[in-house]
Every structure is written in C-alpha cells, then in structure tokens.
Known about the structure:
single chain; mainly alpha; 65% helix; 0% strand; globular
Amino acid sequence: MTQETILDQSEGNWFSEDVATFGDRLAAARGAAGMTQGQFARRLGVKLSTVKSWEDDLSEPRANKLQMMAGLLNVSVGWLLIGEGEGVEEVSEEETVPGLDAILVEMRDLRTDLKLKLDQMARLEKKLRLKLKDFT
C-alpha cells in the first residue's frame, strides 16, 4: 500500500475509484464485519495466506469464493470487484452501538451456514433425482 493510499484512507476516501482496489474493498468489508483475516479464511475454507494475497492484490479469488465472500461480508459481488453496488458504508464512531458488531457477525455467520446447508441440500436433491431415474 502506498503512502498516498494510506493518507487517502485516513481521510475517509477508502473507496474512491482512483484509490481503492479489490484488496482494499475486501479488507474494508472484512473489517466492517468484525473479522480478522484468520476468521475470514476459516469461514471461507481457505488458507490465511490466500486471504492475505487477495487483500494485497497479489491474486484474485475464483467465482465461487467471490460469491461466498460477498454473502459472508454482506456486500455485492460488483462492489467487491469494481466498487459499484451494495458495499460498506462509512460509520462514524459515535453512531456505533455497543454489542451491535457481535450481533451482526453472528447473523452473518448464520446466513452463511444456511447458504452452505442449502447448497448441500440442492446437491443431495440432484443425486436423489438421478437415483430415482434409474428406478423408472
């Protein structure tokens, strides 16, 4: 990260088109969700080094991981990729409600777990349909 980027971010210009990268937006959304890089990596099922390389703009996630991270972070895929769409809003320190972050993190975790279970159920339904076709 350049000194200019750090100065822009400290002045509240995190997401201006000429400054923010995919890695910047990912780090901001992860931070807004109250997760460390390690927690985020575990929830996505990837290595910590993978998350670090994404945030450092050394690599990019595959489409399936991109969709999962957008859901986990409660932002749109478009916002992560190009900064357009539903993303992280700046919240001033005085607007923060004590304990709210923990509740939001728990809700996001639950939503992610539900999505994973729904995906698993869809795969099982497909297998079941294929097995039933064999019997008809």
